[in-house]
Every structure is written in structure tokens, then in C-alpha cells.
Amino acid sequence: MEELRQDTRLMVSMRMKLVCIGAVYLAFVGSACVLSLQRVQAVLVDLISATEEDASQMPEGEGEPESPADGPTIEDNAQPPPVDIGRQSTETPQEDLTVTELRLEWVFNTSDVFADKSFGAGHYSGPTVWDVDGDGENEVVFGTRRGDSKRIWCIDQDGHFEWLYPTINQEELPGDPISKISLIDVDSDGTYELCFTGRGGILHVLNGHGQVEWTWENPNQSNMIGPPQAYDVDEDGVVEFFLGDNNGDVYRVDHTGEVVWRSQVPTQTYGQPTICDLNGDGDYELVLSPYHGNIHCLSAATGSLRWVFERAYTNPPVIVADVNRDGRDEVLASVEYRPEEPHPGGLVCLDDSGNELWSWETPDRVRMCQVIGDVDADGSIDIAVMSAAHLVYCLDIGGEFPEKKWELNLTLASEDGLIPLGATSTQWSAYQLIADIDGDGQQEILWLAPYPIVTDAATGNIEAYYINPHVALDRRQENGGWWGDVDGDGLSEWIVELNGNYHSATAVYCLTMGGPFPAESPWPEYSHCAYPAEYQQEQDWLTLKAAGSNSVWFPIGPEFCFILIVVLQGSLLCTGERSC
Question: How would DSSP label each residue in 212-237?
Fold first, then answer.
């Protein structure tokens, strides 16, 4: 494991050079040429075709629905019958298919655990699934902020309670745990700690049994929203944390909880910075989009400003990836619509120097972390966007400019009888995932709108949904989800927390379509995935691999390397050196 960790760290942090060797033979007599990647691709397509012929902040309380403190608990698993497809009020007509019901494997209600105690939903986070205590079986760890108190919960792979932090007899957390749990080997001892932040301004570091190892208190006592980000940027063998708060301060904190530096951006950072080596020079940067502010790039070594992209109302977190596959990283951020400006919503893409490459505009609000991946196996990166005004989109962003593949109005789809009433999309519920949940070899997009809805990723056709009488409808969803095989039974599962009509009706559900696991997925969890980088590198099914737990930096790997083909008479030399 230590050798694997060293190899992975070398590949990711040092971006080691790769040599790509090909076996393409061209008959150019007495000539030599160097081909660009685009030309190489064209040549390979021609050769393959010839061969065939021969033989896929928000401010506290804003937009939050009021819910009574108590109410009915979940006592039944009513399964509505399949809904026959008639027509679809979208730009992409639905084929004559039947929408099926996701099957419920188990449900866990936090309000059933302690007598006379009610716990509601978490917020702006999602479950982390991992064998946190080393017993050989996965646990599901998540936070709640409603009802009687604010806590972190751990349940087993079958939905049974294991532990609570703080314990029920201790004082609750000082603020909402608006933070997914990050799995970080803080002290480089080979064991991953559970790290989270939230309202109240404290970084918590726990062991796998829910016991505190240490905490760090923000001097401002300011909210720190989003999963903590950590990386060994100085290559001393231990990680450093990089944390932003609602006061506009950004901190570098070492593995013992000591502040290394403190920097400031002009507005609150409602989300954590993305740690990356943006231009591949070996020096790390932090790219962050403060709440309704401009995009900033800071030096991870010193906190000094590298550049600013001035575009109002961009939102965190910022994705860093080679979205157009030109061998260089791009910066991708969502932009929120503001009617009083007026200011369109949408997306913006920058190069590694902070220059705009393109923007995509919509009259709707777009917030949170939209998800990327190749949804239709055409070799180009796509993005699935949830916006306000009931619309969800799929765009191809792999070219010079984005192209819309399809859009879907979920509210009209429910009113037309394609799915049950109560479906709606909102900028507050952008928790979508991309995965092959049914095992058909094609990608699906898993939406929470607010109940679970599965669409075919390539076409937008609705495939499945889940609902019961306790699930709150016509409002935003509070928390994101997770996809994978939680219990090792060979089936893919989708774990979601669904807000109830009352706090006590909110519960965590494990759903399935019966598809096998492993199956391919570029984006299996909210905030990509909580798996450590070493584990991600081992998973063939994970088609986008991030630099760390809950990181949205996707270092350029072998599949993106730039190829130089030098054609010599009678032979071919493929050197293709690329800094990765």
C-alpha cells in the first residue's frame, strides 16, 4: 500500500512525464512529418474505418422551506405502478418506453434511533461510504442539521446505526455540518481520518469510531462550507489543509492544526478552494470562486494572488480539468442569474492563465457543482446542469464552444404523467451524478428533483424514479447522494437522503435498478467522490480520477497525453512526451 501511495503521489503531484508508443504505419516514401493530436485522431479514424471495411453561501436560511418539528415516520414502502410514456414536453422527444420504479433495499430514519428525538436533513453535502473502522465492511457517514440537534451519523452497509458524533449525551455541533466527510490520511500513518467543517468555523478530524483526534478553530469563528481540501503541496510527506471561510479568509493549515499562512479575497468563500497544479509547472495553486464573486487563483505555497477573472456571481466549487483534451487544464465554474442586473446564469470556462475560453448563458440560475464526464462514449467531455425554472441540461463542452445535447423540463414531465407530480429542478438541488446504474453499458444521469429521477445520459429519456408518501415534493432537495456497491453484493446502489414532509420523515434510502457493479461512472457522488486518490487510481470503473478525496481537480493522465508521431520510411517512432 505504501508503495502504491508513493507511486500515486508521484504521478499526481509531480505530474510525471509519460511516453506514449503507438503502432500506426503509414507509407510515406522518403518523407517525415510531425502530426498534431487532431491529425493523429483523424488518421486513426481513417485506419479503423478501412480495417472495418476489410474485416459514453447561499446565506443561512435562504430559500429553505419551513417544516414542522415532528410528524409521521416512514412505515411503508409503497411502490407506485410503472407509468406508461405518452409524450414529453421537452426539446428531446421521449421514445415509447416505460418508466420503472427504483427498488428500495433499505431505509434508515435518524428520528427512529433515540426516543423523543427528531433529526432532519443535512445540507449541501452527502454521504461518504468507506470502511471507516477497518472491519471489512463499508459504513455510511453523513451529517444532519435539522430537528433537535446537529450531528454526524455513522450507519453500517445495511442501514443500521453504529455511532453518533458528538454522542447524544454531549453538546451538539456549534453549527450545521454543511460539509461532506473527506477521507484524508492526515498524519501519513496509512489510516484515513474523517474530516469535515461547517457552520461554526471548526475543522474536525475524527477516527473511524467517531472519536476526536484534533480540531482547528477558525480565528474568525466564521462558517467554512464544503468538504475540507488537503494535499501535500510541498512534498514533505504530509498533507496541508486549505480552507476558506465566509469572512473571505483562506487558510493553509498543517497536519497538526497550525496555521501556515492566511490570505483574503474580497467576499465570502461559500465553498472550499480547488487545489491543483494548474499549468503543470510543479507549483500548486488554489482556484476558488467566492460566493457571488470573481474567480481567484492563489499560490498554494504563499497565498499570494496569481490572477483574478472578473465575472460577477460565479459560484463554488471550481472544476479544474482538461475539458477540451488539448493537454492543458481548464477552469470551469457556474454563474448565477441575477434579474436585478440583469445578469445571465450559465457556465464559464477559462484557460490556465485565467483568460475566458467560452461562456454558456441561460436565463436560469445555476449554482453548486455541476458534473462532467463523457456521457455517450463519443470521446468528448459533457456536463449535466441543473438550473432553476425546472430545466436540466446536457451539454457537450469538449469542443471550442459548448453545444446543447438536450434539455428536459422535469415539472412538465411530471404534469404530463411521465413521472409522479411534484418534480422540480432548482439551483439549490444540483446534486446530480453520472453512472451506469442499470448495467446496460450506457451512462445515466441521477437527479434529485427533489425525488430520485434517472434519465438516459445520451438522450434525456426518463428511465426510472422513486417516491413514497413521506417524501417532500415541489421543493429543493437538501443533500446529495452516492452511487456504488455499498454492501458488496455485486449490485449497484444509489444512496440518497430524501427530505420528508416533516423532520421526522426525513430518511436515508438505498435504492437500486438491479444493475451489476462494477459499472462505469465518471462522477459517482456529490463533489465527485470521497475516495482517496490512491483508491481512485485502482478503480477501472471510475473513468474520471481526482487528485484526492472530494477534490474536483482531475490531473491529466495517460488517456489525455499529447502524441507526436514522427513518420520515417519503413518505421514509426511515437515519442509523445507530455507532462502529466
Answer: EEEEEE-TT---B-S--EEE-SS-SS
